[in-house]
Amino acid sequence: MQTFVNVFLGFFIFEFVGAAPITDTIIYDSEFYNIPFGELPHAFAFDENKQSDEVETEIGTELPSVIQESYSSAPSTEETEDEASTPKLIDGSSAQGSGVLGPQTQDDLPTCLLCTCLGTTVYCDDRELDAVPPLPKKTTYFYSRYNRIRKISRNDFANLNHLKRIDLTANFISEIHKDAFRRLPQLQELVLRDNRIRQLPELPSTLTFIDVSKNRLGRRGIPNEAFKNLDELQHLYITDNNLDHIPLPLPESLQALHLQNNNIQEMHEDTFCKMRDFTYVRRALEDIRLDGNPINLSKTPYAYMCLPRLPVGNLI
User: What GO terms describe the biological role, i.e. biological process, of this protein (predicted)?
Assistant: First the structure.
């Protein structure tokens, strides 16, 4: 009985406690809990407008400054790539003038507008020119074929210290100043074929290739020993010039000598070889063309003993 009473009282007390309302105030650890929002101190008040302004300042001022700094310090790869892919125009500086498109010609046009300039090569083919145009100072290769040029003056190629090749094929050139080419320190190839040249000028010792075919040199157009000091000369073409002799002496470096269609009638035993040295061999000279000349090669058999190959020409 006593046990039943204890259980009943325990259950009654539990039900009473669970149904009783909570009347105690919940105390927060803040001295401002019961103060209205508008009366809070400024340091603890939340100003929506101010917060918004700070965000705008932070985003609109500070962030772009960082971005701007990073952009200013980083190289512009797009411009660099564009500059690298853009073809460079020839340097127009020269004694006659300067400019991106080269010096001015006598027609008041830049050379690289009248002609075509690619790198350091100048092409003036078939432009009806009657004189050599002023060339950019760094010109390396110059082509002016099929024009009406009649004269090469002393200063046409002055100060062109990089010039390696001149090609004036098929013009009307009849006069060349004696110093027109001599002062070119790097000139290697000189092509003057199909003109009206009667006298060769002085030639620079740097030449490796000369073609003066189809001109009017005749018997006096080539000075004595004109090729003697050309120690690097490898190819010499003097066809169709009405020559009556082989121009001597010829440099040891010579590999090809073309004299077709001239008026050469005789050859000596020391023209190519050494009469008193039968052990001498001229190994470089492998191409001699004498066809089209009134000469009988069979009359001078000892003239070819030092050569690796016989000349081409009439053997009867």
Answer: articular cartilage development; bone development
Tokens 């000075």 belong to: 223
Q: Taking Cα atoms as reference points, which of 129, 250, 125 lies closest to residue 191?
A: 125
Instruction: Kindly state the tokens that stand for 102.
Output: 């080269």
**Secondary structure percentages of the chain, helix, strand, coil, to 5:** 20, 10, 65
DSSP characters over 82-108: HHHHSPPPPP---SS---TT-SB-TTS
- Whole-number Å distance between alpha carbons of 84 and 101: 20
Q: Tokens 């790869």 belong to which residue?
A: 77
Q: For the residues of 273-310, what is the DSSP string, one character each? A: S-TT-TT----S--EEE-TTSS--GGG-GGGGTT-SSP
CA gap 291, 193 in Å, rounded: 19
CA–CA dist 62, 2 (Å, integer): 81
Does residue 281 surpass a pLDDT of 90?
Answer: yes
Global pTM value: 0.69
Instruction: State the residue for tokens 């853009």.
Output: 86
Taking alpha carbons only, the member of 169, 165, 172, 168 closest to residue 188 is: 165
- What pLDDT is stored for residue 103 in this prediction? 61
Place of tokens 């929002």: 37
Domain spans of the chain, in order of start: 2-84, 149-316
In terms of DSSP bridges, do strands 141-143 and 116-118 run parallel, antiparallel, or are they unpaired? unpaired
Q: What is the structure's pLDDT at 246?
A: 95
Q: How confident is the model at residue 86 (pLDDT cuts 50, 70, 90)?
A: very low
Bond into 133 cis (ω within 30)? no
Per-residue model confidence (pLDDT) at position 54? 47
Find residue 122's DSSP bridge partners. Answer: 117, 142
Other beta carbons within 10 angstroms of residue 236's beta carbon come to 21
Q: Measuring CA to CA, which residue among 234, 165, 238 is closest to residue 200?
A: 238
Residues present in the chain in total: 316
Tens-place pLDDT, residues 22-67: 444 444 444 443 445 445 454 444 444 444 444 444 444 444 443 3
- Class of domain 149-316 as given by CATH: alpha beta
